[in-house]
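Trying the structure run again after the queue cleared.
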Amino acid sequence: MRKQRSSPILSLVMILAAAVVGVPFYYIVVNTFKTQRETSASPLAPPTSLYLDNYVRVFENTPILQSFLNTVYVTAVSIVIMLVIGSMAAYAMLLRTNLINRVAGVLLVIAFLVPGQATLIPVYRILVELQLVDSLEGLIMLYTAGSIFCYFLIQGYLRSLPISIFEAARIDGAGPWQIYWRIVLPLIRPILITVGVFQTMWIWNDFITPNVFISSPDKQTLVLQVYKAVGEYSVDWPAFMTLSVIVLIPVVIFFIVMQRHIVNGLLQGSVKG
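Done. Tokens:
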């Protein structure tokens, strides 16, 4: 009886939550098919006709393909490095004593809590010395700091697995690398996918890091192209929203395809083996 009463309330809450998310998305999409004047006059009204000049103008005047390839390269390489470092660190700490584990955990939490904006100046000076400013490889190096987040989630997942699996492999003569490669990686595949999706969305949508460390037009990411529509005294809103939709389409498709794996990874990690 209680469930029947709470069901309509839950449905109403979910509808309201969907509206909060859906209305801004609707606002952005419909205005990509309008002129600047139509956008200013009636931003929430549907377009009177299928006006595609905004998309044509954006693809003609903006290096979308180059920026897309830059973003894919930085995202893919960064994700691979983060997952490797995070999974190796989580497995290594699982083999250590409780004292070492706790000390390392405290240090990593402190590092994780430091805002990235607070370290921009010293990090910038370090990259200048390494000659990695204004390079995609420098961006990749910066994003590998996300390995800390990967470490925490993967370690929590590893703790849900029975330790007897690793002990049995060790008794059978398997070394640490063999256990990691043949046992740990296959077992933590669900959480690796989950963490990979989270980090992919973070890197793909990140604006501050490439805006600070990238200046060459041929090395800019997709998010920086959106900012080009913002002038000193005015904003080309149709172009701004068109670029926003172009940036969002790949990550929305990616999230829809991977959402089942996200749920599976989080649920399996919450159940003790």
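Residues 105 and 152 are 9 Å apart (CA to CA). Worth checking whether this holds up in the mutant runs.
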